[in-house]
Amino acid sequence: MIKLLSDFAVGEGGRIVKVGGQGALRRRLFDMGVTPGADVTLRKKAPLGDPIEVTLRGYELTLRKTEAACVEVEVL
């Protein structure tokens, strides 16, 4: 099942399938290690849902909800 990273529940994980977005946003995500094939787990959500913290490639990364909405993940 494919879901957007922004729709994940805390503790849910999967493998990145596609990174959307355009221009600087897409490049920034790739530079931070958000690439297809990487495993990702949602660790925390802020009280209002933005930002979120994920574990990716052995480190914690904080993303805005709009950035996370550009990442399609296959739920494992």
Description:
The protein has helices at residues 23-31, 65-68, and strands spanning 2-4, 13-19, 39-45, 52-56, 59-63, 71-75. The protein has 76 residues and is an alpha+beta fold. A hairpin with a 6-residue loop joins strand 3 (39-45) and strand 4. The termini are close together. The model has no long low-confidence stretch (mean pLDDT 93).
What is Rg? Answer: 11 Å
Which ranges are low-confidence, i.e. pLDDT below 50, for 5 or more consecutive residues? Answer: none
Average pLDDT, to the nearest integer?
93
The share of residues in extended strands comes to 35-45%
- Helix % is 10-25%
Q: Tell me the series of helices and strands, N- to C-terminal.
A: EEHEEEHE
E-strand count: 6
Main beta sheet: strand number and arrangement? Answer: 6 strands, antiparallel
N→C terminal distance: 8 Å
Computed structural class: alpha+beta
The 3D shape can be described as: globular
Total helices: the number is: 2
Major β-sheet strand ordering: 1-6-2-3-4-5
